[in-house]
Q: What sequence folds into this?
């Protein structure tokens, strides 16, 4: 399942809660494995006992054995009828567990927000609602499958009665001795026992089947488009990036990018600006092949990115995303994540370049400070500096900064920019920024709106044009003026 998760496209994770996926990987797999460990041995014991007992019974009286064996299909029919009715409840039980997990996960991640908006009661209410559904499905499932046991007992006892009657007649006819009948009866008890035992664990088996269905559902999800058989490799990427008539939409029926053409030369710094929701991040998602284009092609150094292995393609990029991702571990480990086998000196070098070194040294534990899972023990801007250091360490051919410095103060931002300029000499760099003052020096500015590039050029060219960019720039500039006046 873990391997499968690695191969699933991002689209899969976009469309469901993490808790739901988590529940499948943790609860359902656990359910299956514990059933296999406990119930399977029970099964084997029951089966072997059954065979032994049948042989013994046959040796005493084939006629009476026939009577006992005839009860077997009756039991099977009864079990089948019951499990058919309870299975759907087991299914909705596992589903509710998944939903419940999703809710709890979400509420814990958004803990502060839930508290800030005073939504504790609603959150608990929603939990109750799902939990009630879980309760309902569970007791129905358990109740229905719980009737298997008594029914098996009835059938078993019926068999017992017939054996006693038939045995009595046989003894009267002096066909067998009374001792044989007695022995037979205890064997027939042993015959029904394993079946009753199996019936007893029927509910466990049923919930396991429900779990297995969920596991296979995940395993059957369509994966990322398979890698082509003959993959192209760029051993020394220069960083020429071209978008040729690219078409894309997150959903089939809602195209976002219609016909995008961009030509970026190696070593250029390209700034992408535009209003919120214009499709800037989408552009990067396509470039990194997090999503597949619906039409047209994207090339790097003239090679279609669809012809490359995803791992190879992504290896050429270093990226700092809009939402920072740090894991539970030391600051050193988090930065070193950028490159396998980075030395301590290299980590410190990268941190210096990202202007993170200073704040790290002021922490009591320095580079060995352990970040918690959500990295709430450092500030948002500091998180960004760490992710920038990580990308610098990766030393990629193409660097992508998506609002990478949005949370740091303007002065640090300019410092980082300068350090970047030094670092990115001769490499291609994509910068997405809302603060236009920081991207003035870019070689090419792409102005995006509603999924298409509406203007491109340098800062001066775009200003002279007096179009969308000029407007945007003016509004930021005058906005600051106004602030200064009121301040
Ligand atoms: N995973 C997704 N599934 C469906 N639609 C999406 C998804 N991600 C983004 N969108 C939609 O695509 C459009 C472009 O989003 P995108 O993230 O590229 O904007 P952006 O230019 O990066 O904005 P921002 O400046 O706020 O980061 C938006 O209208 C958004 O609603
Ligand atoms: Mg974005």
A:
């Amino acid at each position: 399942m873990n391997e499968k998760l690695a191969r699933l496209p991002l689209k899969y994770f976009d469309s469901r809660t993490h808790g739901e996926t988590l529940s499948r990987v943790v609860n359902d797999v656990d359910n299956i494995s514990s059933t296999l460990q406990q119930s399977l041995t029970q099964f084997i014991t029951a089966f072997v006992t059954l065979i032994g007992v049948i042989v013994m019974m046959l040796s005493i009286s084939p006629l009476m054995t026939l009577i006992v064996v005839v009860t077997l299909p009756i039991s099977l029919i009864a079990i089948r009828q019951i499990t058919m009715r309870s299975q759907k409840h087991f299914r909705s039980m596992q589903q509710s567990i998944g939903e419940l997990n999703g809710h709890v996960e979400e509420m814990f991640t958004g803990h502060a927000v839930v508290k800030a908006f005073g939504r504790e009661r609603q959150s608990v209410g929603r939990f109750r609602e799902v939990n009630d559904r879980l309760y309902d499905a569970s007791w129905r499932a358990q109740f229905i499958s719980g009737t298997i046991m008594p029914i098996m007992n009835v059938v078993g006892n019926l068999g017992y009665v017939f054996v006693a009657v038939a045995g009595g007649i046989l003894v009267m006819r002096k066909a067998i001795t009374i001792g044989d009948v007695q022995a037979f009866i205890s064997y027939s008890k042993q015959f029904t026992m394993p079946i009753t035992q199996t019936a007893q664990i029927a509910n466990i088996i049923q919930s396991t089947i429900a779990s297995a269905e969920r596991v296979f559902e995940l395993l059957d999800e369509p994966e990322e488009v398979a890698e082509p058989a003959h993959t192209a490799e760029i051993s020394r990427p220069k960083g020429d990036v071209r978008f040729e008539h690219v078409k894309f939409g997150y959903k089939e029926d809602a195209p976002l990018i219609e016909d995008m053409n961009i030509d970026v030369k190696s070593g250029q710094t390209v700034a992408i600006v535009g209003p919120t929701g214009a499709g800037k991040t989408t552009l990067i998602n396509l470039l990194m092949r997090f999503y597949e284009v619906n039409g047209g092609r994207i090339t790097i150094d003239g090679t279609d990115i669809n012809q490359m292995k995803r791992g190879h393609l992504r290896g050429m990029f270093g990226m700092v995303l809009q939402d920072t991702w740090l894991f539970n571990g030391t600051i050193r480990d988090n930065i070193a994540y950028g490159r396998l086998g980075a030395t301590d000196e290299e980590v410190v070098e990268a941190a210096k370049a990202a202007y993170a070194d200073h704040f790290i040294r002021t922490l009591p534990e320095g580079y060995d400070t352990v970040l918690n899972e959500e990295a709430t023990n450092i500030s948002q801007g500091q998180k960004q500096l760490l992710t920038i250091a990580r990308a610098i360490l990766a030393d990629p051919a193409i660097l992508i900064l998506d609002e990478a410095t949005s949370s740091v103060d303007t002065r640090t931002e300019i410092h980082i920019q300068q350090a970047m300029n030094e670092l990115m000499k001769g490499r291609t760099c994509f910068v997405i920024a809302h603060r236009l003052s920081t991207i003035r020096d870019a070689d090419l500015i792409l102005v995006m709106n509603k999924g298409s590039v509406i203007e491109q050029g340098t800062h001066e060219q775009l200003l002279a044009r007096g179009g969308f960019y000029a407007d945007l720039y003016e509004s930021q500039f005058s906005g600051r003026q106004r602030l200064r006046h009121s301040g």
Observations:
- The radius of gyration is 34 Å.
- The chain has two domains: 2-219, 241-486.
